[in-house]
Amino acid sequence: MTFAEIMEHIARTFEAVGALVLVAGLIWSVLYAGMVWRRTGLGRRGYETLRESYGGVLLLGLEILVAADLVQTVAVEPTLENVAVLGLIVVIRTVLSFSLEIEIEGVAPWRRAAMSGASHISRSVRRGRGDVDPAPAGDADS
Q1: Which of 21, 33, 37, 107 has the most C-beta neighbours closer than 10 Å?
Q2: Does residue 21 sit in the same domain as residue 72?
Q3: Using an 8 Å Cβ cutoff, are 102 and 95 in contact?
Q4: Measured between alpha carbons, how far is 124 from 129 in angstroms, rounded to an integer?
């Protein structure tokens, strides 16, 4: 068996795993959303749970499928045309992943860092030491 054949099998395995993640993730997301709906009695909360959980599954599935494309193009058929097609696929999937992440989180990644994380932790530490005002001007969430 040649290197190209091995890489072809690896790429097909990545594709199969990506498809399995998407199908199993859909089933799991629907079941989980159903449990939330039954527990809370709120159809809206069940829908939100389904949307968030399957959105995460879509992101994972897209990443696995991008890996399959990378292996296929770089290791199996490294022609200029295939690399250009791969570049286009990666750009499209990256934009799609970015859009899905914003849809799931409800905020752009660069805004998320300002809304939570290290800046809030460091502010809390400084507040505890008395280094800063309890609520800086314009900071409504503190």
Answers
A1: 33
A2: yes
A3: no
A4: 9
Answer yes or no: do 91 and 113 share one domain: no
49 and 99 share one domain: yes
Q: What is the Cα–Cα distance from 108 to 88, expressed in whole angstroms?
A: 23
Structure tokens at 122: 């460091």
| 0.70 exceeded by pTM | no
Residue range(s) defining the domain that contains residue 90:
3-106
Structure tokens at 61: 């599935």
Q: Which residue has the tokens 């809206």?
A: 44
The whole-number mean pLDDT for each consecutive block of 10 residues of the chain, a chain of 142 residues, reads: 87 94 95 91 86 88 88 80 84 83 76 60 56 50 44
Each residue's pLDDT tens digit, 9-30: 999 999 999 999 999 999 999 9
From CA 119, how far away is CA 25, in angstroms rounded? Answer: 33
Q: First CA to last CA across the chain, in angstroms?
A: 62
What is Dmax (Cα atoms) for the chain? 68
Cβ-proximal residues to 28 (8 Å cutoff; 6+ apart), any chain:
53, 57
